[in-house]
Amino acid sequence: MKNLKFDKTGSAEFSKILRSRVNAHFKNTKTSIYGDRSMVIKTIIMLSVFFIPLIMMSTGLISSPALIFALYITSGLGMAGVGMGVMHDALHGSYSKNKKVNKYVGYSMNLIGASANVWKIQHNVLHHTYTNVDEGDDDINTPFFLRFTPNTKRYWIHRFQYLYIWFFYGLSTISWITTKDFVRVKRYRDMGFFNKEGEYNKEVMKIAAWKLLYYSYALVLPLIMIPLPAWIIILAFLSMHFVTGICISLVFQTAHIVQDAVFLKPDQEGLISNDWTVHQLATTSNYAPRSKVFSWLIGGLNFQVEHHLFPNICHIHYSKLSEIVSETAREFNVPYLVKKTFVAALSDHVKMLRQLGKA
């Protein structure tokens, strides 16, 4: 990867004023930028929705295939809730002002089968810094049969990606709990991460150990305890992950892979022709800003603009911040992308996939 950098010559005043207004909001309202009791309640609820179905199956008292599928899928919804509404804030350091609390709550990522340390590089460092930038944002670094940016080569198969993409979205967390973390940790080492003496090998061991723990209680224990053929339980387990993968993919993809978002390519020196703050506004879109229930369920990620600008602030504050950000953006004639509903955002995402498949 090139030594990427942003053009700092423009829009500095916008960034300065926006941040001063957000800081003033918290000072005037005497509110902490971190989570509050509502985050603790959400954590308990989401972890319960994830773990209770698994515990019920591990008792061996349930033998109905239909109920096994229902419990696994319910657990999958809880897994998505943990990923979007609990660990996401913790690993950004916005769940609590106490770093240890963030660290231990962030381990919920490991409990659902993925690596917190690898995710922090992929998401916090690469995606948040270089959103929609070729060679920087790992979220648009896809296998050849997917095309998420107009700056990569188009193949004939891409014209159909809007049809088959859903299958691969469903497989995304299955990939995560099997190979993705191992592939990424090696690639990130080659990029300069995990390069201290012994750090890479130690990280690989951690990844393997956490995955072993996850498979033990999420799949092996039900296989031992449930008096049903193994293929039924394995299929139900895969169904859980398919549901989780679909939920998480749609929430994140509808915020960046849309028609009015920009996809910048750095020049030969690695310079990105945008101020970082303006870049986040140009590459990120909100949706369904008035839906409080939906926002609660997905951890405030319908306010992706505010999240990208202020990832150190807990998502419970994004609704209020959106008023400040949108008003300041209008004042400085800076783009502020938003879709009224999630359905509208999803429709736009599909149109973008079709567009990327044609040209």
TrEMBL record:
Keywords of the record = Membrane, Transmembrane, Transmembrane helix
Q: Which residues form the Fatty acid desaturase domain?
A: 68-337
The family database entries (InterPro entries) matched by this protein are listed as: FA_desaturase_dom, Fatty_acid_desaturase
GO cellular component: a single term: membrane
Which GO BP terms apply? lipid biosynthetic process
| GO MF term (any one) | oxidoreductase activity, acting on paired donors, with oxidation of a pair of donors resulting in the reduction of molecular oxygen to two molecules of water
Give TM segment ranges: 39-56, 62-83, 163-183, 230-252
PANTHER family with a match to the protein in the record: DELTA(5) FATTY ACID DESATURASE C-RELATED, FATTY ACID DESATURASE 2
Protein name according to UniProt: Linoleoyl-CoA desaturase
